[in-house]
Design a protein that fits this description.
- This protein is mostly helical and 86 residues long.
- The protein folds into 2 domains: 47 residues, no CATH class; 38 residues, no CATH class.
- Helix 3 crosses helix 4.
- The chain starts with a helix and ends with a helix.
Length: 86
C-alpha cells in the first residue's frame, strides 16, 4: 500500500526529531517515547484510515464498529480501524 508507506516516510523523521528531544530532556525517557509512539501511531492511523473513519461518522457513530470478527466484509475496514486506533 503506497499511501501507508508514504505516511511512514513522513512520520519517520518526525519520530527521530522527537527521539532527539526526549534524550535531551534526560528524564522519563521510556514514558515519553511511549507517548510519542502512541501519538504518531494515532496520526498515521487517522490519515490512512480516513475513508472508513468518515463512513463511521456518516453512518452514525454508535454501533458501527461492532466486532463480528471479520464475518461481514462490508464492516471489516471499520472494525480494523476501530481496534487500530484503540
Amino acid at each position: 500500500m503506497l499511501e501507508a508507506d508514504l505516511v511512514r516516510l513522513m512520520l519517520g523523521p518526525l519520530f527521530l526529531i522527537c527521539l532527539v528531544v526526549v534524550f535531551r530532556l534526560r528524564k522519563r525517557k521510556a514514558a515519553r517515547l511511549l507517548m510519542v509512539t502512541g501519538v504518531l501511531h494515532i496520526l498515521g492511523g487517522l490519515w490512512v484510515g480516513r475513508g472508513p473513519l468518515m463512513r463511521i461518522f456518516s453512518e452514525g457513530f454508535f454501533g458501527e464498529a461492532d466486532s463480528a470478527l471479520g464475518t461481514l466484509p462490508a464492516h471489516a475496514e471499520k472494525e480494523l480501524l476501530f481496534w487500530f486506533l484503540l
